[in-house]
Amino acid sequence: MAPLTNLLTASLFLLTASASSAVKDLLPSNFDAIVLQSNKPALVEFFAPWCGHCKTLAPIYDELASNFASLADKVTIAKVDADAEKDLGRRFGVQGFPTLKWFDGVSEEAEDYRGGRDLESLTSFVEGKIGGKAKVKRVERSAVDMLNDKTFGEKVGGDADALVAFTAPWCGHCKTLAPTWEKVAQDFAAESGVLIAKVDCEADNAKATAQDAGVQSYPTIHYYPKGSKDPIPYTGGRSEADLVSFMNEKAGTHRSVGGTLNALAGTIPSLDDMAKTLKSGGETAYQQFVEAVGAVSGKYGGYYGKVAKKAGENAGYVEKELARLQGLLAKGGLAPEKLDDLTSRSNILRKFVGGEEVRKDEL
Fold first, then answer.
1. How far apart are CA 205 and CA 26, in angstroms?
2. Which end of the chain, N or C, is more open, meaning fewer C-beta atoms within 10 Å of its C-beta?
């Protein structure tokens, strides 16, 4: 009898593999009708739920079936759990997993598929057999950095704070996390100091990395501080908001869900309270503010000084400039860098709102 962990793994694989998949599941009760008597050729995978290579192939085979879904009248992409349906496996001489066979749809004669198990090779084989082209869905380039044994060492522990998800292609929870992980990566795409990455722990070129990280379950999420290769387990929530908040805290960034900057971006706390009291403080307050501006570092320190100067020269400058920037932001169509800059400047201008107008001749 198989150990309980093996049974649970097999059950999980079956559930996640069949959910919303375009691959046709075959049983002794429907195999002949679908594969041998349909007058339609079929590519059939004989697999076992516990087989590592089968788990690796599963998402590729699902994508293959989805790409040929528009040609369902010409070809069937199917699979058989040959561990559960041993008679079907023996009937067609299956001796290892996964085994892929091509059936012509009119006889029991099958051709062993001996090509590569990548999507391109499988697609080329099926297209050559049916004389039709798969409808490949356009996939936008992922913002998630896929790491392997080589690139992990190059990118983690450098100048970026890294959040890395260790996953397996057959893992249901990993599949659930995937779209959220993509959104988080997109949210931080403009932050050169943040790395959102994944490691396929079952890929041959990444197994050593997974082992070094002590990964024992999927998905495992580790945070790596800038300059460190020592993992810190992430145990927080897995929503986009949870992950964005975590990385903002660790990396000192100010991203919101969706990738825009939040209300703190660009602002400098040591200057904010001073900015609102320039009027009441008079010349002394202004000179102290100028000195404080000169003492801070960062991209927007000088902008505080510029706003203070113009606010002293022109009544209503802060409100007018804030309205102008908000108008530009509302129009949209801005490059990411410009969007971030206008958002940061708007945040700073708001720090001057609330105090009385500062007139230059009163300073």
1. 33
2. N
pLDDT tens digits, residue range 318-340?
999 999 999 999 999 999 999 99
Q: What is the pLDDT of residues 267-278, one digit of tens each?
A: 999 899 888 777
What is the rounded CA–CA span in Å between residue 284 and residue 307? 17
Q: Based on the number of CB atoms within 10 Å of its own CB, is 11 exposed (0-12), middle (13-18) or buried (19 or more)? A: exposed
d(CA 276, CA 304) in angstroms, rounded, equals: 11
- Is 194 within 8 Å of 223 (Cβ atoms)? no
Residue 116 three-state SS: coil
Distance from chain centroid for Cα 204: 21
Dihedral of CA atoms 119, 122, 126, 127 in degrees, nearest 10, equals 50
The pTM of this model reads 0.66
Question: What is the C-alpha to C-alpha distance for residues 306 and 251, in angstroms, rounded to an integer?
Answer: 28
**Residue 355 burial by Cβ neighbours in a 10 Å radius (0-12, 13-18, 19+):** middle
Which residue, 7, 17, 22, 19, is CA-closest to 76?
A: 22
Residues in the chain: 363
As a whole number of angstroms, the longest Cα–Cα distance in the chain is 97
Short-list 126, 112, 110, 106, CA closest to 33: 106
| Cβ neighbours for 99, distance < 8 A, ≥ 6 positions apart | 45, 46, 82, 112
Nearest to 151 by CA among 184, 197, 119: 197
Beta carbons within 10 angstroms of residue 219's beta carbon: 22
**Residues with active-site annotation:** 51, 54, 171, 174
